[in-house]
Design goal:
It is a single chain. The protein is an alpha/beta fold. The chain is built from 8 helices and 13 strands. The chain has 3 domains: 60 residues, OB fold (Dihydrolipoamide Acetyltransferase, E2P); 145 residues, Rossmann fold (3-Layer(aba) Sandwich), CATH 3.40.50; 65 residues, Ribonucleotide Reductase Protein R1, domain 1, CATH 1.10.40.50. Strands 1-2-3-5-4 form a 5-stranded mixed barrel. The protein has a two-stranded antiparallel sheet with strand order 6-7. It is globular, with a radius of gyration of 21 Å. The chain starts with a strand and ends with a helix. Keywords: Cytoplasm, GTP-binding, Hydrolase, Metal-binding, Nucleotide-binding, Ribosome biogenesis, RNA-binding, rRNA-binding, Zinc. It is found in: Cytoplasm.
């Protein structure tokens, strides 16, 4: 028996990296009976007589697991947003951050196309950058220059499994092609009507980039809150989590309760009013989903 990491899943086969070798494996039949499916990113135990005839025997405990793309043990999400074309969307960024926090994944916020901004637009982006950096998030500003993107991003990719996610139409697949040109990931033209690009990859694979690994499929294609409870939402806003025990009432929803530390911090300007409004918006979305399900 040997240990390796699943690098690719395709047509019922799992390709396990063990040292310098890539072993083609199948999953054991009892995985299906137990409702378990091996995922790209899994650390597994396997046995193989040769490179094309192996079987996965056991799967190590996962630290997290994503549904879309189906991948496990992700360390980091590269959240790619553009400064314009399409315009930077703080509401969408906060939605991504909630999902990433709930999966215990560390985000790296990347705002691209900074060289296309006017001085006034650059000032607006700098204000957003300051808000997120004060919360402890890492924010990288890049330009349309490919070498600039590579130089700034490579150090953050080292020794990590990363998934790329973010705003539609900002070129997530193009970013992967910049980081690893030999990938030549196929992308369709962005629809000017929808403002979206379409990624055409049909399987999930971990691609070595520098000393790290990046999933070749953009992640978090589903951004609804069906897996998040209303009572847990504030825990995925770091500025609210830090004040969790300061509210007068246990289980405070930070909406209408008196002596709420979060609302007081918003009034003082210690918590971003915009972030708080996004929290209220997401909370209502979760509650309305629950009301529909309870009918």
């Amino acid at each position: 028996m040997a240990t390796g990491k699943i690098m690719k899943a395709l047509s019922g086969f799992y390709y396990v990296q063990a040292g310098d070798e890539l072993i083609q494996c199948r999953g054991r039949g009892n995985f299906r009976n137990r409702g378990i499916k091996p995922l790209v990113g899994d650390t597994v135990e396997y046995e193989a007589e040769n490179k094309t005839d192996g079987y996965i025997l056991d799967i190590a405990e996962r630290k997290n697991e994503l549904i879309r793309p189906p991948i496990a043990n992700v360390d980091q999400a590269l959240l790619v947003f553009s400064a314009l074309e399409p315009d930077f969307s703080p509401a969408l960024l906060d939605r991504f951050l909630v999902h990433i926090e709930s999966n215990q994944i560390e985000p790296l916020i990347i705002i691209s196309k900074m060289d296309l901004l006017t001085e006034e637009q650059m000032g607006n982006i700098s204000q957003y950058q300051a808000v997120y950096q004060q919360l402890g998030y890492r924010v990288i500003l890049t330009t349309t220059n490919e070498e600039d993107s590579i130089e700034k991003l490579l150090p953050f990719i080292e020794e990590r499994i990363s998934v790329v996610a973010g705003q539609s139409g900002v070129g997530k697949s193009s970013l992967l092609n910049v980081l690893k040109p030999e990938l030549d990931i196929e992308t369709n033209q962005i629809s000017t009507h929808l403002g979206r690009g379409k990624h055409t990859t049909r399987h999930v694979e971990l691609i070595p980039v520098g000393q790290g690994l990046i999933a070749d499929t953009p992640g978090f294609s589903s951004l609804d809150f069906t897996q998040i409870e209303a009572g847990d939402l504030s825990e995925y806003f770091p500025e609210m989590l830090a004040r969790l025990n300061q509210c007068k009432f246990r289980g405070c929803t930070h909406t209408s309760e008196p002596k709420c530390a979060v609302k007081e911090a918003v009034d003082k300007g210690d918590i971003s009013e915009q972030r708080y409004q996004h929290y209220l918006q997401f909370l209502e979305e979760i509650n309305s989903q629950k009301r529909r399900y309870d009918k």
